[in-house]
């Protein structure tokens, strides 16, 4: 009799424990599924410290990132494609002098602005990119034109510019891209070490040491979006690295390195020391880990970032999967970043 009671008590305890754990896991998954992101953006990663930021600058960055998110969100809400949302969002960031893309692009060693950009459509794996362009106001639109209006994926330099003109894009004088801040940045980089290219947005006071340990800010911009049809898209636009050698091309326009999108996995945009992102093929690595190993977007993003960091690189990335789950890891002090959920909740973050 005593044994029967003991067995009954054991069964009862096991049943209670199992019921509790089921409640817990269903609570967790319902909480997780509640947050569905439709867009994630970045404005570069690096040595972004609260201690060296002024309240005015912080407010300006927050306002620009918020405006970019609102613009892309409006496109998605109107039923436009994720590609439209990515392009419209990146226009806002390219037109702002705050970011190292379009208007705020950094200078090469020769004192020029040479920009790279890429866009990818996750629904059909079509992609377009431009590299080393100097007169196209919005390089992201040139990348899209290459994808949609040419039989190619990547076009560079004068050829890409001729094509952009034919596609009817806005062409500007190279002087449009002059900003005093970036020019001063080039002078500091040259003074520091004329042979080394420098990642963007160095803090002026500690510029010398920063350009040597290459842990500056990277002001590249990127956007990943998920539209109402469930299609993913990714875009990245950049001026590259301050004092870069003439003709140097970074990871942003290289499909699979700085930019990638696949409806089966995720849309990804990277920012950081481009050479390492190229060698690690970071964006495609994330997609492959998800596709072949079934990893979550968060797990895959962290593994790919760590692998790149092991080679000696630094930076960050944003990734959004087909279910609206996102990741935005970085191994620098900060990364300008922002998210918007399906119900329009905006979050903008700068520091770790
Ligand atoms: N990844 C860019 C490049 O190397 C730089 C950046 O992210 O700011 O061109």
What does this 3D model show about the protein?
- With 352 residues, this protein is α+β, with helices and mostly antiparallel strands.
- It has a single domain, classed as 4-Layer Sandwich (Glutamine Phosphoribosylpyrophosphate, subunit 1, domain 1).
- The protein is 41% helix and 21% strand.
- It has ten helices and twelve strands.
- It has an eight-stranded mixed sheet.
- Helix 3 packs antiparallel against helix 4, helix 6 packs across helix 7 and helix 8 packs across helix 10.
- The longest helix is centred in the first third of the chain and has 33 residues.
- It is globular and about 50 Å long.
- About 10% of the residues have low confidence.
- Bound molecules: aspartic acid.
* Structure summary, number of beta strands: 12
Quote the distance from N terminus to C terminus.
61 Å
CATH topology: Glutamine Phosphoribosylpyrophosphate, subunit 1, domain 1
The DSSP helix count reads 10
**In angstroms, what is the radius of gyration?**
22 Å
Mean pLDDT across all amino acids: 88
List the helices and strands and how they pair.
Layout: H1 2-34, E1 37-46, H2 55-77, H3 82-94, E2 115-121, E3 126-133, H4 139-149, E4 154-156, H5 157-166, H6 180-193, H7 207-213, E5 221-226, E6 232-238, E7 259-261, E8 266-272, H8 274-280, H9 282-293, H10 297-311, E9 315-321, E10 326-327, E11 334-341, E12 346-351
Parallel strand pairs: 3-4
Antiparallel strand pairs: 1-5, 1-11, 2-3, 2-6, 5-6, 7-8, 8-9, 9-10, 11-12
This protein binds aspartic acid.
Residues 44, 100, 199-200, 218-220, 238, 240-241, 250-252, 258, 271-272, 274, 315 line the site of aspartic acid (ASP).
């Amino acid at each position: 009799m005593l044994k029967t009671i003991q067995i009954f008590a054991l069964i009862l305890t096991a049943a209670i424990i199992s019921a509790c754990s089921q409640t817990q896991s269903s609570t967790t998954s319902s909480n997780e599924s509640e947050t569905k992101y439709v867009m994630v953006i970045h404005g570069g990663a690096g040595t972004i410290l609260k201690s060296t930021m002024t309240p005015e600058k912080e407010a300006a960055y927050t306002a620009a990132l918020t405006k970019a998110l609102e613009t892309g969100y409006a496109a998605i809400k109107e039923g436009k494609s994720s590609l439209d949302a990515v392009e419209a969002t990146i226009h806002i960031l390219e037109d702002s002098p705050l970011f190292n893309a379009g208007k705020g692009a950094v200078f090469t060693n020769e004192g020029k602005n040479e920009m790279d950009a890429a866009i990818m459509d996750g629904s059909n794996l079509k992609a377009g990119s431009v590299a080393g362009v100097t007169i196209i106001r919005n390089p992201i639109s040139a990348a899209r034109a290459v994808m949609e209006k040419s039989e190619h994926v990547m076009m560079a330099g004068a050829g890409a510019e001729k094509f952009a003109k034919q596609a009817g894009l806005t062409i500007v004088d190279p002087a449009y891209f002059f900003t005093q801040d970036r020019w001063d940045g080039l002078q500091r980089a040259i003074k520091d070490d004329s042979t080394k290219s420098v990642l963007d947005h160095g803090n002026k006071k500690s510029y010398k040491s920063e350009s040597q340990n290459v842990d500056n800010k990277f002001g590249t911009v990127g956007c990943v979006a998920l539209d109402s049809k469930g299609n993913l898209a990714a875009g990245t636009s950049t001026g590259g690295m301050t004092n870069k050698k003439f003709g140097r091309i970074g990871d942003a326009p290289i499909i699979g390195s700085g930019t990638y999108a696949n409806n089966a996995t995720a849309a990804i945009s990277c920012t950081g020391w481009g050479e390492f992102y190229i060698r690690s093929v970071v964006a495609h690595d994330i997609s492959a880990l998800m596709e072949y190993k079934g990893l979550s977007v968060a797990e895959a993003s962290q593994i790919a970032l760590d692998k790149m960091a092991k080679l000696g690189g630094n930076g960050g990335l944003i990734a959004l999967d087909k279910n609206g789950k996102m990741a935005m890891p970085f191994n620098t002090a900060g990364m300008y970043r922002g998210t918007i959920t399906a119900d329009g909740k905006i979050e903008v973050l700068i520091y770790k």
